[in-house]
Amino acid sequence: MRTYVALLYSIILGEGRRVVMSDLKAMAESLGLKNVRTLVATGNLVFESERISVAGLEKLLESAFEQAFGRHVDIIVRAAEDWRKLASSNPFPTESVEAGDQVAVRVMRKPVAEDAISGLQACAAADEKVLLVGGDIWVVFSRERPSSRLLAAANHKRMGVGTSRNWNTVRKLAEMIAR
To answer: Which domain of life, per UniProt (predicted)?
Structure first.
């Protein structure tokens, strides 16, 4: 058995409906996944499974989600060792300690090309930072502005399938897989 982290792109089903984490957990357990746990109400799963490809797990979870909740949602899966590597390669450790909710990583299904990051950096405000690490996009968002041009610039059309998590969530998921 291996441990995995799964991140849902969205848990909003439309018209004010959201996925309840107990329902998400039950869906994952119905697939035979073991030791299924959720973290906060934003679509984060930690589970164990027999050795199967990450892409296979993504397809399995996406199909089950659509069947259970009536809507397709992109789900990004990382093996525990890959999640630990992602967490340990945070390029903004000082900012993460000071404001973990302002540091985020867009976890990508396929690595972003190195040359794509310059377009994002051009959208960053003077007090924002953007770096590409291991194909994932790390950002320090501004505390001064409630919205950032970076969010729109890092969308699916431009960067590919991915989903963002702030440093606090990344760290807590890393702690969950360590247990």
So the answer is: Bacteria
